[in-house]
Amino acid sequence: PTHEYLGFSAGLDFETRILVKEEMPTLLAHELSARSWRPQVIAIGGVTDGYQPVERKLKLTRRCVEVLADFRNPCMVITKNRLVTRDVDLFARMASEKLAAIWVSITTLDSALHARLEPRASAPAERLRAVAELADAGVPVGVLAAPIIPGLTDHELPAILAAASSAGATFSGYTPVRLPMAVAPLFEDWLGRHFPDRREKVLSRIRSMRGGRLNDPSFNTRMRGAGIYAGQLRAMYHLAARKAGVDAKPPSLATDRFHPPDRNAQLGLFN
Fold first, then answer.
1. pLDDT tens digits for 1-30?
2. Residue 19's closest CA among 29, 5, 32?
């Protein structure tokens, strides 16, 4: 729904009208250079994917990670694209000082469903390869089973966690599907076109987790849901994570290693 704030639709516009912050690496270096900056973990990919297809061309995310590495400021990345492995050299260097960790989100292991649900993101097998490549390079990597769609992908949760564990993931998390603002009618339309026989079952289960609505914006429940079905999903996750060996928490990243590069190096960043 962030696109709506800018006058675009949350549907096709989100996938085809990509807004780019061309000066982001320079602005980031400027912010980290300020005396007021206090080292803290920076999350990349919490709103939209920093490794979406256009990043292959623009390399803005890589340049931002280079800045973070130069300043030795920790970061945590969330992505559903194998392109993240392009920057494994940077993440491995940062991970050696406890400055980086990666979450790879996996929605489904079903390639046919993936083609309907996330056609422009990396295929499930490619995401698992990304987990393996990052793990082999010594980068802490976990799996985020998200979004879990009740009545459509929820039964895959144990298999997703097991596959990611086999690939090298050591921690995990999950998030039931969220449908804020204009995303809800878009999702309803998508269900009607692709899974008309399951539409009402899926929507009913979502409402059962969201207080009778399709979306619950409450801070305490929006990421997990509430009610009987949400409790069952939570119990299934914990059991499956423990069985797969990915029930550990994400690693704590270091903030005490922060050190701005020398003045000449900083000037190079601005150039």
1. 888 888 998 888 988 898 899 999 999 999
2. 5
Give the pair of three-digit tokens for residue 225.
């849901």
Measured from the Cβ of residue 38, the count of other Cβ atoms closer than 10 Å reads 7
Cβ–Cβ < 8 Å for 43, 75: yes
∠230-232-236 over CA atoms, to 5°? 115
Pairing of strands 42-44, 141-148: unpaired
Query: Which residue positions in the chain have pLDDT lower than 50?
Result: 264
Q: Output the pLDDT for position 218.
A: 87
Sheet holding 141-148, edge to edge: 42-44, 75-79, 100-106, 141-148, 171-176
Backbone angles phi, psi at 213, to 5 degrees: -115, 175
